[in-house]
Every structure is written in C-alpha cells, then in structure tokens.
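Tutorial handout. Part one gives the primary structure; part two gives the three-dimensional structure as tokens.
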Amino acid sequence: MELQSCFPIWDKLSAVQQDTILGSLISRQVKKGALIHSGSTDCTGLLLVKSGQLRAYILSDEGREVTIYRLFGRDICLFSASCMLRSAQFDVTIDAEKDTDLWIIPAEVYRRVMEESAPLSNYTNEIMAARFSEVMWLVEQIMWKSMDRRVAAFLLEESAIEGGDRLFITHETIANHLGTHREVVTRMLRYLQDEGLVKLSRGTVELRDPKGLTALRDN
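Part two.
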C-alpha cells in the first residue's frame, strides 16, 4: 500500500507539497501492546496505518480506560498530532492491539502543508469532525445505554473485527474498552451466559447466539 492511497485529496496537492510530505515520512513497525502516543504533551505526528490495528483511548486520573475508537488499514489518526491544531489538545493514548505497520508524518510538516493547501485543510477538518462524532456517540452510549447492551455491542463489534465467534479476550480487556470495572463485566458476561448468548472459559468468550446479542444491543 502506498501513502497516496490514504489521502483522497492527494492529487490536489502541488508537486512540492507532495514531495515535502513524502520526504518527511517515517516508517515504523510496532509490536502488539506497544505504546505509540501518550497524551496531549506527546506530539507524535500524524499516524497512517498500513496494516494492523491501533486503539485510541482516554485514561482517567484513577487509571480507568475507555476506548474512543480503533484504527485499521488506511485509517488516519489526527489526535496523535493535536499540537498542530490551534486551541485543540487531547489527552488521548494510543497503543497497538496487533502488530502494526504505520507511517508517521511529523506534526510540523503536516501543519505547514495544511496551511498552504485548502483541500488538505478541509480534509483534515472532515477527519476531525468524524472523530468528534465517534466521541459523542461514545458519550451517548455511556450515558444512556445499559451495561448489558454495551457489552453485547462490544462483543459483536469484536467478532466482526476478528472474523469469528470465538474471542480470545479477558474480562479486564473488555472492561478497559468500556471504561468500567472488571467485576461489572464479569457479572454481565455471566448474565449473558445464563441467557444462552455466550459461553465463557478462561481467556475466551464464545458467541453462542449472535442474533440474540444483536437483539439485546438494539433493544
């Protein structure tokens, strides 16, 4: 995959602007579990995922986590370069959920090209608006959705990502994604198991009734 395929507006950049971005590009390979970005004080740069999977999450003062979005192949992360956006700073942490190949465009380089290019500036604003929409959706889920429905939704999403109904995931990991305590997740999973929707074993959650989970999620 080439960098150009990640930018729908690439052809609207001048040759000089394209060369500036390509000339500054950093290729990086990270292992599963690696910390890539650690908050607003860490201006890593713009991240573009070639392959793999990243997780962006918020970390509270008490150490609680909640996932705000995931990044897959061809996805772009702006929050890792929030220092280039005036009056916008985000304490978002990003780590690798799987072994990942990515590109990094240094924040200062991207900002300089963005200030010169209206198409790139507009495209950047569209990405940021989409990410904010995801964050607002998450806030609505936390405020208005019951935990059993949130757990069902997460399991279905994870099943779609992994391409199967057998998930190798711990209760602690699910709790970190959902911003709750492990004990709460364990209680919800046992309830889902009692209802015949999942089967639990050590480090594994098997979806026994995806249609039932979908009905619970959408209820």
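Part three, for discussion. The CA atoms of residues 65 and 176 lie 5 Å apart. The longest strand covers residues 65-71.
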